[in-house]
Design goal:
By secondary structure, the protein is mainly β. It has one helix at residues 2-15, and strands at 47-54, 78-88, 91-96, 104-113, 116-128, 142-146, 153-159, 165-176, 182-194. It has one helix and nine strands.
């Protein structure tokens, strides 16, 4: 199952010292400005999606900072958030489904990128980790995202083949659990893909 592969890959990446091929533009603490919005947005199907957000525990790359303190929370720096994606004029909005959190991810087509269309946007709010069908149980970890000089964190990424998106988020990001254990991350990674069986690839818009 595709979801199984992606979740396994994401979890492995979060625990090792190398990030995905996507290298984020260094915009930490800066608003996403000067990015033109084309009249034709990315072609996606509205519906339920998995938004995965994860940070590194180890890294030897200065451009990929780690979450600190290391090993906190004990169950890791990874959240699988259940969101609903809708189109709003020239951008897409992904929001937590009721009872799952307050996340709001907004992104738009930012031109050509390596491996697909480049995307840019913002994300804010919080979400608990959700059980990914029968693939893995939910943990007790939550993530909270915000910016430095603005309410939302910055999002950069790539819309790859089909309805799979991935990239990086920079801002004030924290993973925590009910015991109060918390780690801070200036940079984390994200993926977005439809919940299996609820969305199909659309050829155009």
């Amino acid at each position: 199952m595709k979801l199984t592969v992606v979740i396994a890959l994401s979890g492995a990446v979060a625990a090792c010292d190398s990030g995905p091929a996507f290298v984020p533009t260094p915009t930490t603490g800066q608003a996403v400005l000067g990015v033109p919005r084309p009249s034709r947005p990315i072609a996606l199907n509205p519906g339920p999606y998995w938004l995965q957000i994860y940070g590194h525990a180890l890294s030897d790359n200065p451009s990929e900072p780690v979450c600190a303190p290391a090993g906190v929370p004990a169950q890791g720096t990874f959240v699988n958030a259940l969101v609903r994606v809708e189109r709003l004029v020239d951008e897409w909005v992904a929001q937590s489904v009721p009872g799952e959190g307050t996340l709001e991810l907004r992104f738009f087509d930012a031109g050509s990128g390596i491996g697909g269309a480049a995307v840019a946007g913002t994300v804010s709010g919080s979400s608990r980790d959700s059980e990914a069908a029968s693939v893995r149980p939910a943990t007790n970890v939550s993530v909270t995202l915000g910016g430095f000089s603005q309410p939302a964190a910055n999002v950069r990424g790539v819309a790859a083949a089909g309805s799979f998106l991935y990239g990086a988020i920079s801002g004030r990001i924290a993973f925590s659990d009910p015991s109060g254990a918390s780690s801070s991350c200036p940079l984390v990674y994200w993926t977005l893909q439809p919940v299996p069986g609820t969305a199909r690839i659309r050829a155009g818009d």
